[in-house]
Amino acid sequence: MPSQSRRRAIKLGSSLGLLGVAMPFAVETIAAQVGGRVPASREHIVESNERTVRVGVVDPKAEAVVTIESGDVVRYVNTWINWGNEAKYGMSFAEREPIRRKYPQGPYSLVGPVAIKGAHPGDLIECRMIKLRPIQWGWNAAPRGVGALPKDFDKPYLKYFRFDNDRRYANFAPGIRIPLKPIQGFMATAPASDETKSAILAGPNGGNIALSELVAGTSLFLPVSRDGAMVWTGNSHAAQGDGQVDQTTIETAMEDLQIQYILHKGASLPGPMAETPTHWIGLGFGETIADALKSGLREQIKWLAATAGISDVEAYSIYSMAGSFRITQYADQVASAYSVIPAKAVHGMLPKAVFTPEMRNQIAARTRAGGLAGNV
């Protein structure tokens, strides 16, 4: 579709609340060696507004903002920043405190849910990250009582950043520049229960996973627990270090976010998993780093054994020789504006380079194929 027509569609969508405007759309080519070439699809435009956003929570009873076919792309335009878009550039920490405390279940402005036709419990949704362009600014903050060192600093910290026009970097200080690697910190399918869940949490359906590797050209796999899958996203980061030890990253929102959703029937995994051009990445969650490492490793061993056709102990050995386990998220909160504490999270990175091209293709195909669920 010509760009002018796409601009008209965006303008029309704005007047309609942007709740499912769809158009023919050929996905731009991305350098992703994940699941083969991106198929042609349709594009659906969704804007953040009072009807499409829940702040701090996943609401399993929320109606879909758009229903799509497998392979379609959802383009989220002008997503909201934290706290229902109430945060503004340059606010002092004291000015932000009343806003933070308005949302005790969490700060993230989640947009959704997106329903995928034909998705049922036991299936798998592949979230292919096509484009992530942040807005022009963001911040890093360290409130007292949170992060990996909750008692080490007497005063809260807050620093704002402006990004260059190409969204390549943020200047921190003279001689210090932070490269931008935009991700969505929150990605989740709706849980089976009708109970509202805090967006700070993460688990089998995804959630606040904050995986720094999920840049454009990668895929996140999420198990389906209810009809339609009902996918939510939010918590945009312009850059993030593994562990996000002061509890935040460069927090931002997305000017243009494009995600392709692909349904894999009967291919459910026990929890979220990612694929990049160079690695398979499994995640584990727990009350301690040790618990997160063990739970994630056990699931990754079973996945690798099933997809590579090897024994569990052989998979265990491969992860010990070639895998790399990193802290995804660490929090030791002693005080917080929020009612829950995020889980400790560890991700295991398995390089594709240790496998032959034929074995890489087998692992990718079996991960996306039906019948794997019973083996993992």
Automatic annotation (TrEMBL):
Q: Where is the signal peptide?
A: 1-26
SUPFAM superfamilies reported for this sequence:
Acetamidase/Formamidase-like
Q: The organism sits in which domain of life?
A: Bacteria
Looking up Gene3D superfamilies in the UniProt record yields:
Acetamidase/Formamidase-like domains
Cite the entry's keywords alphabetically: Signal
Q: Which InterPro entries match?
A: FmdA_AmdA
Against PANTHER family, the record matches this protein to:
FORMAMIDASE C869.04-RELATED
Q: Name it.
A: Acetamidase
Please report the organism this UniProt entry assigns to the protein. Answer: Paraburkholderia solitsugae
